[in-house]
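User: Predict the structure for this protein chain, please.
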Amino acid sequence: MLRPSKFRGLIILSMFALFFTCYTFKANADLKDVNEVHSKSFTKHFNRFHKLASKLSKQGYVYCIDNKAFFGKNTYPVISYSDRDKKIVVDKKIRFKIKHIWSYKNGISVNVVSKNKKYDSLVNFPTGIYDVYSRDKKLAPIVTFANKIFYKKVKNNHYNLEKLNSMANNVKSDKKRKLAKQFVKQFDYFLLAKGDLNTVPYFFIGNLN
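Assistant: Here is the predicted structure, written as C-alpha cells:
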C-alpha cells in the first residue's frame, strides 16, 4: 500500500521514467523509453493491474487524452502520433476506452482505443488520461475537495468526508449525482486502502495533483 506522498511520487516517477513528455524531453528519448517497456514480451506485465483495467474498460468510452500526455501508437516499435493528431484528440475531447494497463519497474502505461476506432494509443497512467465527467463544472469541485483531503491540505477527518458526501448529494442532475456518489464511495475505499493504485477512484485518474 502507498501513502499519499509515496503515491504522488509514483505518479511523478511513472510520468518521467516511462513516458517522458514532449515539452520536457526530446522525442527520441520518449520513444527509447516507451520501446524499452513495450517490447514484444510486455504482456507478462499485465497481471499487476489486470482487475483495474477490466473494471475501467467496462466504463466504455469516457476517457480523454490530457494535453501533457505522451500520445503514441500501439505498435512495436512504438512511434508517436503527429502533433496534429494529438491536437485533434485533445481539442475535440475524442473519447477513448481503456483496454490494458501494464507496469514495468516503476513505470505504468495504458492502452486506449478511440470510439471512432481511428486511434489505438499508448499513454502514461494514471496521468495521461482523464474521465470526461471528472472535469464537468458540477463535479470538478467534488474531485478538487477530495484531492485536498487525500493530500491532507485539509484535515482528513469525519467532518470533511461528510462535507464531501453532502456535495455529492446536492448535485441536481440525477446522472451526475449518481456519478458523484459513486466517486465518494470509491474515494472512501481508496483512503482505507491507503492509496493503493488498484483502488484508484475513476475521477482521480488524471486529476491527482
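Confidence is low (pLDDT under 50) at residues 6-27.
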